[in-house]
Amino acid sequence: MRLVIALGGNALLRRGEAPTSENQRRSIKIAAEALASLARLHELIITHGNGPQVGLLALQSAAHQPVEGYPLDILDAETEGMIGYLIEQELANLLPSHRLCATLLTQIEVDANDPAFQSPSKPIGPVYVKAVAERLAQERGWNIAKDGEHYRRVVASPWPRRILQLEVIKLLVACGIVVICAGGGGIPVARDDDGRLHGIEAVIDKDLASALLARELGADMLMMLTDVDAVYQD
Predict the structure, then answer these.
(1) What b/e string do you get for 22-45 counting C-beta neighbours within 10 Å, with b at 16 or more?
(2) Domain boundaries defined on the chain
(3) How far apart are CA 169 and CA 178, in angstroms?
(4) Model pLDDT for residues 28-62, shown as the tens digit of each residue
(5) Cβ partners under 8 Å of residue 165, min gap 6
(6) Mean pLDDT value of segment 22-31
(7) Cα end-to-end distance, the chain, whole Å
(8) pTM here?
(9) Cα dihedral 159, 162, 168, 173 in deg (nearest 10)
(10) How far is residue 9's CA from residue 52's CA, in Å, rounded to a whole number?
């Protein structure tokens, strides 16, 4: 079977847990045990979320004044490489040497005129109490929204339309390689009037990107895994 598995939420980092490399590696190691058992029997394509990680990188980037912070498309690429590296390494430690893994930075085209840019809704970064969230929104020009009992920064989340590295992914899968791609919903890009690609300030929803990937690959199954304990029990 050809499986697309989307890791997100607590499968990478428990809610409220410090986003340290140690905490993330521990969760990914647990998830990798379940993924490795599937990889021995099936073609496997893995995607993942990046909400806490991209928010943290945005905060770190903005802290380096007077240098201007990196835009979200570049931060999306950084998280895709970082998380993909951890997943790839933990899987490689569990799989036989002939079963190769590859992390692929994946650009996903969106419409620059998508209505989502007028209504930011994708939460990223840590949670804040209301007073702190409102202060940060005022200071940094953020949009914020309620998330449970707390508040988080929200950014635009346009609809994914086209996976630019799709043919590369197909080639890797056909060669029996476990592919880690479209991490964090992929790197959002759009075309200008001349058809040239450029990065765009957004974070694509991981589940929507994963669903598009599964459909384009003709996957037999798309699995959304959001809890590390559920992953371990499976």
Answers:
(1) eebeebbbbbbebbbebbeebbbb
(2) 2-112+163-233, 120-155
(3) 10
(4) 998 999 899 999 999 999 999 877 777 677 667 66
(5) 104, 105, 106, 107, 181
(6) 88
(7) 17
(8) 0.86
(9) 60
(10) 9
- CA dist list (Å): 47 to 15, 65, 92, 205: 19, 33, 16, 11
C-alpha 193/C-alpha 75 separation (Å) is 25
Task: Place 12 in a pLDDT band, splitting at 50, 70 and 90.
Answer: confident
The share of the chain scoring above pLDDT 70, in percent, equals: 88
Amino acid at 30: I
**Residue for token pair 């899987």:** 91
| CA dist., res. 155 & res. 189, Å (int) | 15
Contact, 44 vs 35, CB < 8 A? Answer: yes
- Under CATH, which architecture does the 2-112+163-233 domain have? 3-Layer(aba) Sandwich (3.40)
